[in-house]
Amino acid sequence: MDSFLKKSKNKKIKKAYLEYANGNLDQALTLIEDEIKQKDGNVVDDAWVLLGKISFDRQDYNSASVFFDKAISVNKKSTTFYDLAVCLYYDNKYLDCIKSILFAILYENKPSHLIEYKKTAIKMISEINHKKNSQISRAALYNLVNVFIKQSNYENNAIYALYLYMISIMATSDILEVDNIINDIECILEKDRGGLDQIKHVVHMLIVESQGFIELQQRKTEEITLDDIVITLNTKVVYYYLEKFQMNSSFLELFLIQARKVVLDFILQGGECSDKLFFVISVISKQAWKCEYIFFYDDADTNNLNKIKEINHSYYNLACFMFFERSQEYLDKVCLDFDNNMHIKSMVEVINISQKIKLIDIDSYLQVSNDSVLVKEMYEENPYPRWTYNNYLTSKMPLIDILNNFCHNEKTQFFNNKHKPKVLIAGCGTGKQVVGFCKNTLYKEMIAIDISIHSLQYAKYMANQSKLKDIHFYQQDLLNLDQDCFGTFDYIECVGVLHHLKEPFRGWANLVNILEPGGVIKIGLYSSIARSAINRFRQEYQNETDNYDIKKLYEIRLSMLNHKNSFYKKFLKWSDFYSASTFRDLVAHVQEEQFTLLKIKEMLIKLNLEFMGFHISKDLRSKFLTEFDNDESKLFDLDCWSEFETNNEDSFYGMYQFWCKKK
Question: Is Methyltransferase found in the keyword set (predicted)?
Answer without folding.
Answer: yes
